[in-house]
Amino acid sequence: MKKTIIAFCLCFSAFYALAQEDKATSAFRQSSQKTTDNIVASFDKKDYKGAGDTINAWFSRYNKLPEDMRKKLAVFTISMNYNMACVCSRENKIDEGVEWFERSLAAGFDDYNNLKSDPDMENLRGNKRFQEDVQKLREKRDFGYILQNSGPYNKETASNLPIFTYQKASAPELVAFKSKFNLDSVAGTGDEISRMKKLLYWVHNEVRHDGSSNNPSSKNAVDLIEVCQKEKRGVNCRMMSTILRDVYQSEGIPARMVTCLPKDSTDSDCHVITVAWSKTLNKWVWMDPTFNAYVTDRKGNLLNIEEVRQRLVKGGDDLVLNNDANWNNKSKQTKEYYLGYYMSKNLYWLQCSAKSEWDVETQKPGMANIDYIDLYPGSFNSIHKLVRSSGHSVEHATNNPDYFWQKPAQGE
Q: 39 near 54, Cβ under 8 Å?
């Protein structure tokens, strides 16, 4: 058992505490939090029997609750089951420990990184059934391992794939946008990379991220910024990246929004970042307005998504996250979490629109279909075909990173 397991429940309880709930549920929640503290204290003293007695007492109380309360408080069973598995491991009760561990998995335990280094689980590691359970979890939650086994790309490109296009800075809406927010002044007079970073910082500070917010109907930089100011609200990562795309293209820098997705189709937590074309570096570079983040190698060279992904496959040693990467100027981001966990999970496959321009995703009467390109590794294909149409979007599958990351056409 580790205190990080306890913290897992506390994070969830803090979320639920935001909503109003009856006094009995709230009281049991608070009692459960005290119980977890007592379990930690028992482990610190190596009093494993005491920890087990505390857990059993908690389950006795929990099982007597009304069904609706048990559902609200079920998140605590994840750590309670896991911690009992740790008790059994310490007491060398191997078969019983494996059973408790499997209960924790059934309840929702998925912290593979903690599990693989948890010394309290050491005595279970030689058990074949436990090893099989851990391997199954690894195949779902060890995101570096999943990337390593994703399979290679190839160079085959279908002749009917869409052409990538980018809006010119002379477009009237981009000219008006740049003037309205004085973006030339924001970008400054430094070199290309300096200007890119300053524009990234501006979007990060101008708009608050709120991953649970609904998307405004009008999806362009001006309307998104104005609705956030008027309603004192934030927007999700997709809208943040929409704003930065329009910012870059108003300054003559071709840009795309790239949706970064996990292998697990049941995981709805993806992430969207912006990539900008650097003429200086002759490549797309990673710019994430949600986390004010960009990525370099140890020499300070900006990296693109594919370079980051390849390094993560190899272990991620040669990756550096900028020191001022953060969420809403509140939570500092670390390389271990942002790259080692969050983006490792969300770089299994990629998607972006073939057309990068103002209002491209704003629903309008008579609008043309939006072509999206999916870049898949190995034999993976989420749409199970080469082309799929749905509503106003058409998805095209490719396994060719050279096509996906091609240089913008001259004049764009």
A: yes
Instruction: Write the DSSP assignment of 182-249 as a string of letters.
Output: THHHHH-SS-HHHHHHHHHHHHHHHS-B-TTSPPPSS-SHHHHHHHHHHHT--B-HHHHHHHHHHHHH
**Helix (H, G, I), strand (E, B), or coil: what is residue 259?**
strand
Q: Which residues of 271-293 are buried (b: 16+ CB within 10 A; e: fewer)?
A: bbbbbbbbeeeebbbbbbbbbbb
What does DSSP assign to residue 121?
G
Mean pLDDT of the chain: 92
Q: pLDDT digit string (tens) for 322-380? A: 999 999 999 999 999 999 999 999 999 999 999 999 999 999 888 889 999 999 999 99
Which strand (E) or helix (H) includes residue 152?
none
Q: 363 is written with which tokens?
A: 């629903």
Contacts of 65 (CB under 8 A, 6+ apart): 28, 73
Q: Residue 79 phi/psi, 5° resolution? A: -75, -35
Contact in structure between 42 and 50 (CB atoms under 8 Å) = yes
CA 314 to chain centre: 20
Beta bridge partners of 256: 275
Burial class (CB in 10 A: 0-12, 13-18, 19+), 139: middle
CA distance 336 to 321: 9
pLDDT in tens, 68-84: 999 999 999 999 999 99
What's the whole-model pTM score?
A: 0.87
Place of tokens 């095209």: 396
Q: At what angle do helices 48-63 and 76-90 cross, to 10 degrees?
A: 150
